[in-house]
Amino acid sequence: MENSKTPRTVPIQSETFSNPVNAEIRRAAATGIYDIRGGGAKRKVPHFDDLLFLGASVSRYPLEGYREKCETSVTLGTRFAKNPIELDIPVTIAGMSFGALSGPAKEALGRGASMAGTSTTTGDGGMTPEERGHSSKLVYQYLPSRYGMNPDDLRKADAIEVVVGQGAKPGGGGMLLGQKISDRVAEMRTLPQGIDQRSACRHPDWTGPDDLEIKILELREITNWEKPIYIKVGATRPYFDTALAVKAGADVIVIDGLQGGTAATQDVFIEHVGIPTLACIRPAVQALQDLGLHREVQLVVSGGIRNGADVAKALALGADAVSIGTAAMVAIGDNDPKWEEEYQKLGTTAGAYDDWHEGLDPAGITTQSPELQARLDPVEAGRKLRNYLKVMTLEAQTIARACGHNHLHNLEPEDLCALTMEAAAMAKVPLAGTDWYPGKTGF
Amino acid sequence: MQTYNLEADGLRGLNSALHAQNDTVTEDSWEVTNPKGSHAIACGLDAPIEVTIKGSTGYYCAGMNQRATVHVEGSVGPGVAENMMSGQVIVAGDASQYAGATAHGGLLVVRGNASSRCGISLKGADIVVQGNIGHMSAFMAQAGNLVVCGDAGDALGDSLYEARIFVRGTVKSLGADCVEKEMRPEHLEILKYLLERSGCDAKPEEFRRYGSARQLYNFDVDNAQAY
Q1: Does residue A28 sit at the B interface (CB-CB below 8 Å)?
Q2: Among A235, A394, A405, B122, which one is most buried in terms of CB atoms within 10 A?
Q3: B contact test, residue of A140, A222, A225 with most B CBs within 10 A
């Protein structure tokens, strides 16, 4: 008989078959259906946290924080549009639909963005009068589903964003489950109330870059060449997608990385398709530089932007602006711990709630329930978003001044170093304390 | 009648002149000569005017039309009358892919044949094709009517929502969730109206009706093989 004092092997959890992995296997076995959720990739990937700014030193001098100006404005759409969009700050609000989000949430985004001097963006399902009314600058998304698409709204927009894909699901369409298809959402999308609304993964009337060029010609003709035309892609092959978007006639390229959110998609899609935001900026910038159009065709980067440091890093790598979605939702109240009791009832916790497609959001943001959405005060939430955007801008300015720049756009890759080999390779900036990054020749 | 030579005077000039009618109509009859397959001719119109295009066009002719009547005395490239809201577009010849894609309202008449994906994501407009239509027509069509006086290709009405499809000839195959449905008196009335409006002498009784079985409206894992 074994002595109770005999040393035993301690239980070891498998790194491959971890508890969450096993739980998902059991869930799949019980239900027979894949997991659908909102948000972006939750896995840890190389990100802006893996970069640092070098700051000023003997070789360059800084600007005085409270005395010397550091400009933040950006103009988008200077290539062909008669009326480019002029923004006070290089942080825009990404496309999120009325339907995925409640009316008060869309209003709050419009209010906050307008107060901060930036643009907001429609989403699948079209433009609501409230959204147009509260957004001083509104980008109208032109999506594969064309739900709610009409030429009157097209003409009311300040810019048009042709959505080819998004970072959470490059190559995928959308799914708004029936519980969020209220009468108003159904009417806007010309669908029966309560059915699952599928959004197509590709446009119904063009397929490749040659067709896209003609589609853009049509959009420009309809709007008398007034509106900037953006092309939004999910980050996959950023060099070639950027080059082809330029060839198709885009004024602005929007690249959305792996961490970019969605209202609802399969978890396997969110976590396993696309490349991180950090990895897509340099190739996109390289494509623009190779074409001699860097800064003439503007680059907007999105996916996991959280603070002014992220903004500054994206701009230093060559972006003209960034776009935020998830962070804007958090700013107006998404996943707020004050609703913890209700998150617990939904089987989750504040910070992890991502079943946005179910329409039960305690914060009243990703829901069409009149009772839940009444919890969100759009005026107060708009103010919070304004504050958050201001803080991001101040933070980015702080870093830019420390690097000696009087405009955020003067930040450059030479201001950065990387903490990891992966980040150094993706961002093409030297590993901290060295002058080398993977792939750099001459060694 | 205002005549515009597209080859000589350019697309921008034509569409600008036509859009100028949106506020106040100063000339209600327009003729466009030498279209020569150009794209985006007469797109974005929003006035009760009549435009006759004397020849064939490229992509997106009469795209997003509102209120205007556009005649094409030739054939049209992909996406004719895409996202039309109202008015009429009448094509004397054949239509390429995506004819009437996502159109919300108005009437599109194709006197010849229409290629694949005719009426894709249709959102309320009426389409009458006097010849045949290609594969995947009325894919994900949400509302409106697609009338086909000839035959339909493969996968007709795949993933259909609430649009109605009427076919006089044969259907090569039906797409997922599309089924033949009973032709009731109200459907015969709709057909009669559309056939008369489009100048087609076919009889409503000669058609069969197809619509959604509504089995894919809410995701069910047991239907996974249909996706």
Answers
A1: no
A2: B122
A3: A222
Q: Could you give the maximum distance between any two Cα atoms of chain A, in Å?
A: 90
The answer to whether B70 touches B51, Cβ cutoff 8 Å, is yes
CATH code where residue B63 lies: 2.160.20.60
Binary contact (A151, B217; C-beta < 8 A): no
Which stretches of chain A score pLDDT less than 70? 1-3, 179, 442-443
Q: What integer is the mean pLDDT of B52-73?
A: 98
Contact B217 A31 (CB under 8 A): no
pLDDT confidence of residue A419: 98
Whether the CB-CB separation of B65 and B85 falls below 8 Å is answered with yes
B106 touching chain A per CB within 8 A: no
Q: Which of B60, B102, B124 sits opposite A204 (nearest CB)?
A: B102
How many residues are present in chain A? 443
> What's the pLDDT at A161?
98
* Overall number of domains in chain B: 1
Domain carrying residue B148 = 2-218
Q: Could you tell me if residue B225 is inside a domain?
A: no
Contacts of residue A17, Cβ cutoff 8 Å, sequence gap at least 6: none
Interface check A149 vs B, CB under 8 A: yes
Q: Is residue B90 part of a domain?
A: yes
In a domain, B213, yes or no: yes
Q: Name the residue among B65, B34, B63 with its Cα closest to residue B50.
A: B65
List of chain A residues whose C-beta atoms are within 8 Å of the C-beta of residue B79 = 205-206
Pairing status of strand B208-212 against strand B164-167: antiparallel
ipTM of the complex: 0.96
Whole-number pLDDT of residue A192: 82
- Structural domain spans, chain A: 39-427
* B93-147 tens-digit pLDDT: 999 999 999 999 999 999 999 999 999 999 999 999 999 999 999 999 999 999 9
Q: Which CATH architecture has domain A39-427?
A: Alpha-Beta Barrel (3.20)
- Average pLDDT (B201-209) is 97
Locate tokens 């509106």: which residue? A227
- Asked whether residue B227 is domain-assigned, the answer is no
Chain CA centroid to CA A434, Å? 32
